[in-house]
Structure formats: structure tokens, C-alpha cells
Amino acid sequence: PLFGACSLSFIRELVAKGGPAVWRGTTFPVGAVVYAAGEAGSSAFVIARGSAEAGNRLLGPGDCFGEAQVLGVEIVRQETVRAKTSLHVLEVSSSVLTRLLMQTLDSATEEEAE
Prior knowledge:
Oligomer: single chain
């Protein structure tokens, strides 16, 4: 998972800086499309509750999708993601993730210099 190796403090900061898209998340009804293949995107989603289909994969709580877009590897979504059950997701934008990573790197650099 994208955030699997991250510390709890990093995840807390990500949520704190992420704004309402991360704090409250978004709920999709059964069958709703979260995003479609071919759409541009710059965020990733973490499933808080429910399940989704992404291509031929079934995703559940804790799973991420949209990693390539949040990391800037690809701009265009490669697959359609649809709610298999009532789905609640937390959205992490590229700008929030980049800002937090830069702060983390700056802090690590300062600690090394001491």
C-alpha cells in the first residue's frame, strides 16, 4: 500500500493538512464511478469503508487507488474505479502530499546537521 510504510505521525500530519477531503472524505453509492479511465487526476484515494472495483481488482478498507497520479507518474487515470458497495474514501491530493514530504525532508536534513 502507498502509505503502508509511513509512520503514524506522518499519517496524522497528512490528515491534518489534507483538509475536508481527507478529514470527512466522500461517500459513493453502489455502482457510482469514483473516476473513469482517461480522466486527468492528481490525487489518490484511500478506502475507509466499503469496497470498489478497479479494473479486475476488488479493493477494500485500507486499500489505495490513484497512486500514479498523486505521485505525478501519470496524469491520466488508467482504469475506471466503481463502488461495489456503499463506499467511503479519503482523498489525498498531490499538492498536500508534496508539501508534507518536503517538510519531512527538511526536518530530517536539520536533524542530520545537528
